[in-house]
Amino acid sequence: MSSLDDLYRRVIMDHYSRPRNRGEFEDDETVTVNMNNPTCGDRIQLQLKIEDDKIADARFQGEGCSISMASASMMTDAIKGLKVEDALKMAGIFSKMMQGEEYDEDEFDLGDIEALQGVSKFPARIKCATLAWKAMQKGVQDEPNSE
Ligand code: ZN
Predict the structure, then answer these.
(1) How far is residue 93's CA from residue 74's CA, in Å, rounded to a whole number?
(2) What is the DSSP string of the chain?
(3) 8 — phi, psi (to 5°)?
(4) What domains sit in the chain, N to C, each tagged with a CATH number?
(5) How confident is the model over 67-97, as pLDDT tens digits?
(6) Distance in Å, CA 52 to ligand 1 centroid
(7) Residues whose CB falls within 8 Å of the CB of residue 34, separated by 6 or more in sequence, listed in order
(8) Confidence (pTM)
């Protein structure tokens, strides 16, 4: 195993054991999305606070495999403070990464998210990694103030 794989695995396990943005808002979220991935049994509830077309805050809870939970932790960290359109662009880049396609590495600082790129080699796990991103995409669409 390469040291890069090892590093990536440690980043994933760190997010899994110490998830960022885990929890629920006290009623001031603007949208809540529930989504699951039946092939693995992953479940996630994602809440977003969208203000002025910006993702002001994000929280998630749920249960599932290390990849699904680490991905939710990384995703919520990455989109906080982004404009909605930029969060959607990032979701597009993540989807390309999962499909093993080329993506523009310079468009965003992906940070910890890059640790998930190895998942693209395991087709059965891709849905685990994309679950949180799909929830975010749906949440943005469902958001009552979105056009
Ligand atoms: Zn899973």
Answers:
(1) 14
(2) --HHHHHHHHHHHHHHHS-TTBS--SS--SEEEEEEETTTTEEEEEEEEEETTEEEEEEEEEE--HHHHHHHHHHHHHHTT-BHHHHHHHHHHHHHHHTT----TTTS--GGGGGGGGGGG-HHHHHHHHHHHHHHHHHHHH-TT--
(3) -60, -40
(4) 3-142 (3.90.1010.10)
(5) 999 999 999 999 999 999 999 999 999 999 9
(6) 33
(7) 43, 44, 45, 46, 135
(8) 0.94
Give the Cα separation of 75 and 59 in Å (integer): 10
Ligand 1 center to 23 CA (angstroms): 19
- Give me ligand 1 centre to Cα 97, in Å: 17
For β-strands 31-37 and 54-63, DSSP reports them as unpaired
Rg (CA), the chain: 14
- Ligand 1 centroid–CA 124 distance in Å is 9
